[in-house]
Specification:
The protein is about 35% helix and about 15% strand. The protein is α/β, with parallel strands linked by helices. The chain has one domain (about 5-240): 3-Layer(aba) Sandwich (Rossmann fold), CATH 3.40.50. The protein has an eight-stranded mixed β-sheet, with helices on both faces. Helix 5 (about 145-160) links the parallel strand 6 and strand 7. Helix 1 packs across helix 8. The longest helix has 18 residues, at about 220-240. It is globular, with a radius of gyration of 18 Å. The structure holds adenosine-5'-triphosphate (ATP) and magnesium ion. Adenosine-5'-triphosphate binds near residues 12, 17 and 222. Magnesium ion binds next to helix 1.
Length: about 270
């Protein structure tokens, strides 16, 4: 029996904290756990999933679908290396804003797609309140410095107001001796940090090779931290029946023969 996808938004108030990097690798980590994953680049201002993955020359993407000029089903790009479906960003000649009813229409169609997880990469800032009801979880990404944590607290309060569960992920930990400690971060944020993702030189390497870290070194500290996040979501998805979608993927992952593929599920 098919079920509704679990929708995870990767968000931050400040730019450049690692949302796209984490969104792509979280998608990869869930795929390596045998889940069917759709990644959506909703960052209309500087769509960058394509850049991170070296994808060129595609047609319609998020902007055209939300504007009603294209259908989701006709606009899916499949990143063959890991069998990841993506709704890509596309260039705009002007500032793009969407009406709430356009967004509601898009997200109501999106959650009808046959995936276990939908991961939304976003632009920095608050997300439109009209889409809150389609989100199962928000991963708030922050770096371990006070401006980033202070603005993340605001985003967390916004999520609470909209009744959307949220978790704080600290990215680029261990980079500077002046960074906030885990304890100070949690004190300032007012809640525990879900996962600390370390600064890791595998990340710039993956950018230059235009591949997810997962395809370069799954044993790297960065990939292992992302695995921790994926494991929690994998357990969540394990609570509900998705046996049909999982079994469809089986052959692909048996061929991949990754040691960790099934260790995290009940
Ligand atoms: N854990 C990490 N270790 C080392 N470098 C990192 C790490 N995470 C992110 N980076 C680097 O930080 C930069 C910004 O990352 P990314 O593009 O994912 O941020 P973003 O939050 O999506 O930015 P934007 O707000 O512009 O969309 C990139 O150069 C990336 O390689
Ligand atoms: Mg980004």
């Amino acid at each position: 029996m098919d079920k509704k996808p679990f929708v995870i938004m990767v968000a931050s108030q400040k730019g450049g904290v690692g949302k796209t990097t984490i969104a792509i690798n979280l998608a990869a980590a869930l795929i390596y756990q045998d889940y069917r994953v759709l990644l959506v680049d909703t960052d209309v201002d500087s769509f960058s999933v394509m850049e991170h993955l070296g994808i060129q020359g595609v047609g319609n993407g998020f902007k055209e679908i939300v504007a009603g000029k294209a259908e989701i089903e006709d606009s899916l790009f499949v990143y063959q290396n890991i069998d990841l479906s993506i709704i890509l960003g596309s260039p705009a000649d002007d500032a793009v804003t969407f009406k709430p009813d356009q967004l509601v229409k898009f997200y109501s169609q999106l959650v009808k797609q046959n995936y276990d997880f939908i991961i939304l990469d976003t632009k920095p800032g608050m997300f439109p309140s009209s889409i809150a009801r389609y989100l199962n979880d928000v991963v708030i990404v922050a770096t371990p410095d006070s401006p980033s944590i202070a603005s993340s607290s605001k985003l967390a309060s916004y999520c609470e107001k909209l009744k959307v569960p949220r978790r704080l992920v600290i990215n680029r930990a261990g980079y500077s001796k002046f960074e906030l400690s885990k304890e100070d971060t949690e004190k300032m944020f007012g809640d525990v940090a879900f996962v600390m993702v370390p600064e890791d030189k595998i990340v710039p390497e993956s950018l230059s090779k235009q591949k997810p870290v997962y395809l370069i070194d799954r044993g790297s500290p960065f990939a292992m931290a992302i695995d921790q996040i994926a494991r929690v979501y994998g357990l969540k998805a394990g609570d509900v029946d998705n046996s049909t979608t999982k079994s469809k993927r089986k052959g692909f992952f048996e061929r991949m023969a990754w040691w960790g593929a099934k260790t995290n599920k009940k």
